[in-house]
Amino acid sequence: MNLLMLAFTICGSLTLVAKANWKIQRCWEKDIGHCRKRCFQNERYKLLCKNKLTCCIPITAQLSTPKPPPRVIYIEDITV
Question: Where are the domains of the chain?
Fold first, then answer.
């Protein structure tokens, strides 16, 4: 009986651990990217995921991020 309970406990804990890895991790804005080791041909690398995998974003879904405005340099601030 004890061996049967031990087997059920081990199987139950293994299914809980295995379920966490079945889910594909998503990344970027509104979860449009996937965390993978390598991106497909129709995807581009954007940033790193938490698990040090690359965040691959489809080329068609790439959102254009606006460039920051150029820094204003005043002549009074320049010292020679």
Answer: 24-63
